[in-house]
Amino acid sequence: MGIAVKACACSLFHALLRAGEHLIDDNKEFSPSIHITIACVSHFTDPFGFESTRLHIPWTKVRKEQGEDVVWTRQQHPTCPRQALDEHIRINNPLPHEHLFSYTTTGQNGGRKSLHRQSFLSAYNKAATLASFSKVTGHCFRIGGTLEYLLRGHTFETVRELGRWDGDSFRRYLRRHAFVLSPRLHDIDNLHTKFLKHCAQQEILDKDIGAEVSRS
């Protein structure tokens, strides 16, 4: 199970995914029309020779049954999603009719299981506690991935596209999580200043729009 949890966590983080786009809700069963399978995974090489991985999410909060594609690349880091996924596939061998992050259990009740949200978070947070890290919720991977790409110097527009935010929803998202992001940006003055300025400008814009709506 640990290998499946790691592969899922790395993918959530680097693709800025919502937890429900990789995990199965605890009160639901696996369905290939909704949940990701190994058939949803493909690899491609861009014109510059860089290999990337494309994941097709069959059903998303925004696009519903149309689904959406997300992309991540290899990383020179222990959280490399490609390395983690390859290891998971090699060890757990998810079949075409199974959840991508299915795994084999051991013991008297051993068998094949899909990775559900609560099982994932429980296993992840157990490991985090042992490593003296803070516990997380499902949305923390999306927040953390956003911060990671901003700290790397990627533009807000690039991160918005990667996270698949429409219109002004990304700006609202940044303001909502500013208390999480801002303290970790202090050591990078230019980015920190730009981040706070971006949030402040959007706050003023929202107030102006609200005022206009009230007068109309």
TrEMBL record:
It comes from the Eukaryota. Gene3D superfamilies: Intergrase catalytic core (1.10.443.10). One of its GO terms (molecular function) is DNA binding. SUPFAM superfamilies: DNA breaking-rejoining enzymes. One of its GO terms (biological process) is DNA recombination. Keywords: DNA recombination. The keyword Protease does not apply. The keyword Ribosomal protein does not apply. This is Tyr recombinase domain-containing protein.
